[in-house]
Amino acid sequence: MIKLYVDGASAGNPGASGVGVVILVNGSQRQLSHALGCHNNHEAEFLAVIWGLEQCQDFGTNHTLQLCSDSQAVIAAINKRYAKKAPYADYIDRILTLLDAYPLVFCTWLPRAQNKKADQLARSAINTLKKP
């Protein structure tokens, strides 16, 4: 099983944004962050899922996947397989394409306190954008 913890953060709405992911697979852990540029907080959360799923492709798609996010909006949109407004509809289409490659997927909402490491990684990515 692959466990993917994701978080997106934005310093401003919109503002400098970043994503953080923690991937647990086969007893190992990978912690990654990525600076996004200027996005609002919701975009950063959706983009965190996309970027995290892209990083999971390194492990193949023959695993069960558990996606964990502290964004209720993202988890609800994935579970409904629908987002009404642009750019979120495009983000959901990309997320669903990535998720559909796995034989079994669980999408889990977590309280923010249980997603601290992904949040720290996302915020550290923002800090790379703020440095001169």
TrEMBL record:
Could you give a GO molecular-function term held by this entry? nucleic acid binding
The record's listing under Pfam families reads: RVT_3
Please state every residue range assigned to the domain named RNase H type-1.
Answer: 1-127
PROSITE patterns in the record, alphabetically?
RNASE_H_1 (PS50879)
**Where does the source fall among the domains of life?**
Bacteria
| InterPro entries to which the protein is assigned, alphabetical | RNase_H-like, RNaseH-like_sf, RNaseH_domain, RNaseH_sf
SUPFAM superfamilies, per the entry: Ribonuclease H-like
By what name is this protein known?
A: Ribonuclease HI
Species source reads Brochothrix campestris FSL F6-1037
